[in-house]
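User: I'm writing a tutorial on reading structure tokens. Could you give me a worked example: one chain, its sequence, then its tokens, then a sentence or two explaining what the tokens reveal?
Assistant: Sure. Here is the example chain.
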Amino acid sequence: MSGTASISGFVLPKKSAGGVSYDGAIFCHLLGFTDCYEYASDHYMGDFHVVSSSDQHMLMFHGLKRDYQTDPMEELGGETFLDRLAFLEARVDDLYEFRLELYYEHKDAAARFASDVLRALDENYEAVFDVTDTGERCPVSVRFLERA
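And here are its predicted structure tokens:
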């Protein structure tokens, strides 16, 4: 059965390489993706996002969305998303958001690769986490969507 495995969340490098372009390339190469491209974007802090894609995957890596700083969220009691990340203190500029889609024919192979991805992130980043709809920190997980 074919489908898509999705992994998304936030990473905080142990030491930033100096911006989204460099940190994004390191992230791609860590996961084994050698082709990655940067695109200018004023929607994200750092003004760029990095993309890697093939017929088997799609990866986006970027700084925080600018509206995380400015738009109060009703479900957060009027706080901004960035207010909820206060536990990071001054490291917000080094925080990146990512989304990885793995397109698979065999779910067990995708599950093994996804497990390798999570292990690589845990070993190479100071913090790896996701955030719930209410702004609470939670572990990064893998979601599978199967197609008939």
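What the tokens reveal: The beta strands are 2-13, 37-40, 48-53, 57-63, 96-104, 125-131, 137-138, 142-147. The mean pLDDT is 84.
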